[in-house]
Structures are given as C-alpha cells and as structure tokens.
Amino acid sequence: MTRSLDDLLAEADAEPVEGWDFGWFAGRATEERPPWGYARLVGEAMATAQSALDVQTGGGEVLAGIPSPPARLAATESWPPNVALARLNLAALGAEVVEVADDAALPLTAASFDLVVSRHPTVTRWEEIARVLRPGGIYLSQQVGPGSNRELTDFMMGPQPVSEARSVGRARAAAELAGLTVVDLRERALRVEFFDVGAVAYFLRKVLWTVPGFSVARYRDRLAAMHRHIECEGSFVAYAQRYLVEARKPA
C-alpha cells in the first residue's frame, strides 16, 4: 500500500538521530560501500596497536565491532547524546570516551597513541593528530569528499557551489604541513538511492551538513516535490564522495 506524504514525514521526524547506526534505512535506501572496507582496515590496525584513539567516534559503532582491542583504547565525541551512547557501546572494550568539540584541541597527552582513526570527521585538526601520535604512528581515516550527495543538496536548496575544503589535495597538503607522510590516499564516488521521501527526510535530519538548517517543517514543499519525484521515477539517486587517507608520523 502506498503511504502518504504526511505519514512518511511524521515517521521520519519522530525517529531519534543519535549515533551512526543506519539500520533504519533497510529497504528504504541503499548506499554503495567503498571498496577498501574501512571497518575491516580499522580492525586489522587495532589488532597490532598498543594504544589507539578514535576521533569523533559518533556512538562508537565502528570501534564496537573491532575483534581485538588494544591495551589502551580512547575515543572523542562532541555531541552529548552520542557521548552517552558511545560510553554504553564501548564499555565492554574498556574504552575511555572524552567529550570534546570537533574543532578543539584534543585533551590528550602528546605522543601517547600509535594509532589514531576517524570515520567521517566534520573537521580534521591535523596538527593535533600529529601531536598525539607517537613517532612511527599511523592516522587512518575515511572522510567525506567535496560535493558529497550534491544532487540531494541541489534538489532541496537549488544549485549550490561546491567547496574544495574537503578535497584530497587539501588533505594531503594539510597532513604534510603537520609533519605527517601520506602513504595511502584513495577516493570514490558511491551511488546512494532513496526509495521513499521518509528516508530522505531522516537522512537530512541525521547528516546535517547535506542541507544546513534542515527541518521537515522548513523544507516541506521540497519534500513534497521529492515525494512526487520518487513516485514517478521509483527512487532518487545521489552520489556520496568518500576518500581514505593513511598518514604516518616519521619515526
């Protein structure tokens, strides 16, 4: 049975948005996964680390899945609901979860980690990453590239300029300026498909930078247009931009 616009939007607007578990989208949206397998790479790196830090951990979803945690495991997160969720999810691993703003200095001792990881950080303080890494330590991160899901942004807001602030070239330059050596840098455009407008609305509530200032009430007219588009075309397609960066602190 076809569900109404009002029903789909009410459901999406009521769903909690803390954490980075995307299980709610099952059957309603799909996203192609990067070929490098970030969670697997993190698990492999954690297995050989003595001390590791996850920056902007969200609800700790990636760390919670590692098969072999290091002797010392720490994480940072800025949003209080996610801090509480991460502490719950990572308690079994004995991880320390520190609440700190995304753009702030890390309240951690210099040269105290041989591995730092981060999945989709909102901002990367490269000088802070370099400071907390031990000599020979590794930073491994999957990041959001420029123009990610721009098709969705443009549909909701009209054509928008694409900033190069998140480009792989700038990431390499910033890493090297901080004294790190980039040893791997890969990027990929990944197909994202939404099968109902409720999935679109929930995604925009959760991934706030796609449409800054989004709310269901504020963008109801565009959501109604999206509903008509999906009913006519069967889905809405966008492309997420992702890149993997691995950098080493010289020994």
Short description:
34% of the residues lie in helices and 25% in strands. The chain is of the alpha/beta class.
Structure description:
The chain has a single domain, classed as 3-Layer(aba) Sandwich (Rossmann fold). The chain has helices spanning 5-14, 38-48, 61-64, 80-90, 126-132, 150-157, 168-177, 197-206, 220-233; strands at residues 29-31, 51-54, 72-77, 96-99, 113-119, 133-144, 181-194, 236-248. The mean pLDDT is 97. Helix 1 packs parallel to helix 8 (197-206). The protein has nine helices and eight strands. The protein has 251 residues and is of the alpha/beta class.
State the CATH architecture: 3-Layer(aba) Sandwich
- How many separate domains? 1
Find the count of extended strands (DSSP E, 2+ residues). Answer: 8
Low-pLDDT stretches are none
CATH topology descriptor: Rossmann fold
Which radius of gyration do the C-alpha atoms yield? 19 Å
CATH first level: Alpha Beta
Instruction: Give the helix/strand class.
Output: alpha/beta
CA-based shape:
globular
Secondary structure: helix percent: 25-40%
CATH superfamily descriptor: Vaccinia Virus protein VP39
How many individual helices?
9
- Give, in spatial order, the strands making up the sheet with the most strands: 1-7-8-6-5-2-3-4
Average of per-residue pLDDT values: 97
Walk me through the topology:
Elements lengths: L4 H10 L14 E3 L6 H11 L2 E4 L6 H4 L7 E6 L2 H11 L5 E4 L13 E7 L6 H7 E12 L5 H8 L10 H10 L3 E14 L2 H10 L13 H14 L2 E13 L3
Parallel strand pairs: 2-3, 2-5, 3-4, 5-6
Antiparallel strand pairs: 1-7, 6-8, 7-8
Helix pairs in contact: 1-8
